[in-house]
Write a structure and sequence with these properties.
Number of domains of chain A: 2
Structural class of chain A: mainly alpha
CATH class of the largest domain in chain A: Mainly Alpha
Pfam families (chains A, B): TetR_N (PF00440)
Distance between the termini of chain A: 55 Å
Largest sheet of chain A: none
Keywords (chains A, B): DNA-binding, Transcription, Transcription regulation
Organism (chains A, B): Microtetraspora glauca
CATH topology of the largest domain in chain A: Tetracycline Repressor, domain 2
Protein name (chains A, B): Helix-turn-helix domain-containing protein
CATH architecture of the largest domain in chain A: Orthogonal Bundle
Oligomer: homodimer
CATH superfamily of the largest domain in chain A: Tetracycline Repressor, domain 2
Chain lengths: 202, 202
DNA sequence: TGACTTGTTGAACCGTGATTCAAATAGGTA
DNA sequence: TACCTATTTGAATCACGGTTCAACAAGTCA
């Protein structure tokens, strides 16, 4: 028998198992047994913790987004220079490659969001949070006279997040000439235009 | 009994039925019976024409993309002025609203493209074709001295298509403040920066 | 130690979807 | 008209996924 665990621990395991299963089989194509297998349990045990599987899937998506966002915040937390911060932030929004689990999970939701309001809200919220993150950086840089913004910070930030999203999809779909490096360069090209800063990492 | 049809006619019907069924139930969550019902046939009849359902789904996606692309080309075909052509093209790449069937179908593929090479290739091909479409417009405008391009035409075009894609997803997910009009305005803001043209429709 | 709680299994059951195929039917054709 | 072939149906079958639940195992606590 699989090791017995506390309710809280097991739920965390299951959320993680669901995340992995969804990446393999799709957010909507995933089956209870696949999640159970991924967690090393039987389907009954999964149902014991999540009588309604949809709740588990939503929690897994929520956790995936939270993790994605936190990782980004962490990567830029120690950086003071707005230019370097902007460069790092752009990079942190892109998948590391076609197999990047965090972004794969987010991409799974794009289609489902059209049919499922909860997923739509999750994605929308994540988008807005990322926009805020960029706005802070841009306005700090502008206040310091480092950036000369071509538009208001919200417009530029929305564009930056949109570009990350779209190139994320391209990378996941294995575009032959747009990988993480090329995508970062394309977004930086825009950022230069929008901030009037050359944005060269020292 | 449903009306008897020629092989070619029936296949067209089925492709359309599959398209509708996938929008309702997801590209991967769709079932044979749902497609059959949408086509007004029984599951057996569907299998008679498409012994492997995956072939039908791929053809349906392919047809959806073809239709989407052709509609865009058609909308801009009569326009001579590069600026107006650019504005119209941008608008034609966005869904008309959250229910827009063409874009919904494309969004369905985003996640699946990570797992399915065929879908990845389809999306990548569409992306590249749209980039070419923009390049033609930009270079015509530049040659006429109307546009002053801030980057090479490929970079700008990729950015434009990426923005369309990303805002398409936002609109489908029902973002509270980004609808078709706002999205078009955001993309135009970038296009102004990149072309040096004010891009005001007369 | 023994009762009690909680987590897990495994088997049984049920409904559903895919698949197969003989029979029925519509259209075309000689 | 009668035949021929392509298309469609409907029922039977099979496989599989979700759901339930009695039994069991592993902790917990008095």
């Amino acid at each position: 028998m699989a090791q017995r665990k506390s309710r809280a621990d097991r739920r965390m395991d299951l959320i993680d198992a669901a995340r992995r299963a969804m990446i393999q089989h799709g957010a909507e194509g995933v089956h209870l047994n696949q999640i159970a297998e991924e967690a090393g349990l039987t389907s009954g045990a999964v149902l014991y913790h999540y009588p309604d599987l949809r709740d588990l899937l939503i929690e897994a998506h929520h956790a995936g987004m939270e993790r994605f966002y936190e990782q980004r915040v962490k990567k830029i937390s120690g950086i003071a220079d707005p230019a370097l911060k902007l460069i790092t932030t752009i990079r942190s929004g892109l998948p590391e490659g076609p197999e990047d689990a965090g972004v794969r999970l987010l991409c799974e939701l794009g289609g489902a969001a059209g049919r499922n309001r909860v997923y739509g809200t999750l994605l929308t919220t994540l988008f807005d949070r990322q926009v805020s993150m960029y706005q802070t950086i841009l306005e700090t840089g502008a206040a310091q006279g480092i950036f000369t913004l071509a538009h208001d910070s919200e417009t530029i930030s929305r564009t930056l997040v949109a570009l990350e999203d779209a190139y994320g999809y391209r990378i996941i779909a294995r575009h032959h000439s747009i990988g993480p490096d090329k995508a970062a360069e394309l977004i930086l090209d825009y950022a230069r235009l929008a901030t009037g800063h050359e944005l060269r990492p020292k």
